[in-house]
Amino acid sequence: MTANRYDELIDIIDQHLYTNIPTTDDFQKKIYESMKYSLSTGGKRIRPILALVSYSIFNEGTNDFSEILPFAVAIEYIHTYSLIHDDLPAMDNDDIRRGKPTNHKVYNEAIAILAGDGLLNLSGEVISKELESITDPIKLKRAIKSFRYIFSSSGIQGMVGGQTIDIDLSVEDMSLEEVETMYRLKTGSLIKAPLAVGAIIGGATPEELISIEGYAEQLGLQYQIKDDILDFDEDIKSDVATLSKLVSKEELEKLLVKTYNRAINYLDEIDRNTDELKSIAKDLLNRSK
Q1: In Å, what is the CA distance from 251 to each residue of 20, 219, 228, 236, 254?
Q2: CA distance 210 to 156
């Protein structure tokens, strides 16, 4: 994906990301500020971008994203809430995220918890509002399916389930299967959701959706493996449960290439222009941070 295209999609997303949070000076204004703070700390918007790109593939390269934007924005709200809660002392206990103090360090733990809760609820509100406006029965069915897909992906069979595995994971006793399952759920679920939802809202066939899901699963695994490679020297000295504790850096690099190739093979099954998704996979493969 070119830098101009990336910036274009970021602008579209950011124009809609903050409009659902009040700017009024009322008694609960601190929660608005806290939510906006974490939304604006330098996220790359990878997940909503994936939703927009996926949607565009099944709409002949359209730049009219009005139909998919509520779902893309909702996914970013969910992702941001998960980061706020991940950083809390009871979870990862991090003081810095993306070079800035974490939410609970700027406000406090109680406000951070409520900000995460607020973003999760807001995601449902935004999609529900969109559902109310849809009159076409086919489009309404796609939207309801997407609504369920997003919340299943972020729930106990998805992101929350992966976080649970992470909390309970013992570095001494963990297996390759257990770590890969954690990656697939904790990280991969919210990468798979926007790609699948973009395809569903865009009108993909069942066969195309299966291929997009296959690509998404490999992309999510690729994303986490690349993190493990970049953080390898630091991770092997820590008590963090990653693949680095189980395989060598060379093996991780081989696995990274394998997941990349699998992702591209899934896209080759789709008889449409999937160049942007191929470019995203290549960018993740080569990223340096």
Answers
A1: 45, 18, 11, 14, 5
A2: 22
Q: Are the C-beta atoms of 123 and 75 separated by less than 8 Å?
A: yes
- In this prediction the pTM is 0.96
Find where tokens 């297996």 sit.
Answer: 175
Give the percent of the chain with pLDDT over 90.
85
Residue 248: count other Cβ atoms within 10 Å of its Cβ: 12
Q: What is the rounded distance in angstroms from the CA atom of residue 195 to the CA atom of residue 204?
A: 11
Structure tokens at 81: 């809430």
Angle between helices 189-202 and 206-230 (to 10 degrees): 150
Residue with the two structure tokens 């679920």: 189
Query: 174-232: per-residue pLDDT in tens?
Result: 999 999 999 999 999 999 999 999 999 999 999 999 999 999 999 999 999 999 999 99
Residues 16, 45 contacting (CB under 8 angstroms): no
Helix (H, G, I), strand (E, B) or coil at 114: helix
Q: List CB contacts of 55: < 8 A, sequence separation 6 or more.
A: 62, 65, 67, 68, 198, 199, 201, 202
According to DSSP, residue 61 is labeled T
pLDDT band, very low/low/confident/very high, at 146 (cuts 50, 70, 90)? very high
- Partners of residue 96 on adjacent β-strands: 101
Residue 125 clears pLDDT 90, i.e. is over it: yes
* Residue 28 DSSP SS3: coil
pLDDT at 33: 96
DSSP string computed for 139-152 = HHHHHHHHHHHHHH
Rg (CA), the chain: 19
